[in-house]
Amino acid sequence: MIIAGNWKMHLTRAEAGALARDLAARKVAAGVRRLVFPADPLLDTVRSAIEGTDIGLGGQNCHEAMEGAHTGDVSPAMLVDSGCSWVLLGHSERRLGHGESDAVIAARVKAAQEAGLRVILCVGETATERNSGHAEKRIREQLEGSLPERAQADRLAVAYEPVWAIGSGQTATGDDISAMHGLCRRTLGDIDPALAACPILYGGSVKPDNAAAIFATAVDGVLVGGVSLDAEGFHAICRIAADFGLA
Ligand code: PGA
Fold first, then answer.
1. Residue 23 scores a pLDDT above 60
2. What secondary structure letter does DSSP report for 41?
3. How many beta carbons lie within 10 A of that of residue 139, not counting itself?
4. Which residues contact 118 (CB under 8 A, 6 or more apart)?
5. Atom 7 of ligand 1: nearest residue by CA position
6. Looking at 16-155, which runs of residues are DSSP E strands?
7. Are strands 33-37 and 56-59 parallel, antiparallel or unpaired?
8. Tell me, what DSSP letter sits at residue 29?
């Protein structure tokens, strides 16, 4: 079970250090893998706070080039140098807010994996796509378009995050999550049989109240935004995951 916290553009270094130390002091069951994704200026502070613990560190995005004239971007090599072993790619706030296309994301997945990073590739349909019956088609297109040829299966997880569920308090139903996860797994297998066993997470308004219903759908973990800024809430989700993972 992967429990990933996407801290987005929140927290000062002092706040991030305190949150990371709080998480580091809490023990989770062996089957639960905690990951945190702070904003780039916080990476070093968080890295020091979680050193020697089971918590993994990741960046929220990266460029496809290893270095160069790309103002405002960070490279996969810089994330590795900052202590990251993971990176989020294709989050809807990047796809929709920054116009990142499937092709750009595929190039980033390739570069990140080549640099040794593990990738959580995010996909998700908008409310309009879902309401017009195009959710499955959209997810299939995003997976096919955002994965490079010969993506490394051991360095890949997918997060299905319906855009309408992110930060809205609305969560997909268990049946919808199961259906979309099945679709993601089949599509990954069609792209390359080696990818069929990659972890598939769910994201979108995950909280302690709905975590049990989400874990009951056989997801391999969750990507948590808002609640991940609260150590107690994040830890509660980890405890619920442990009950399912170890059952
Ligand atoms: P949320 O964010 O949990 O606040 O909905 C999830 C995400 O954007 O990854």
1. yes
2. G
3. 21
4. 58, 85, 86, 87, 155, 156, 157
5. 225
6. 33-37, 56-59, 86-89, 118-123
7. parallel
8. -
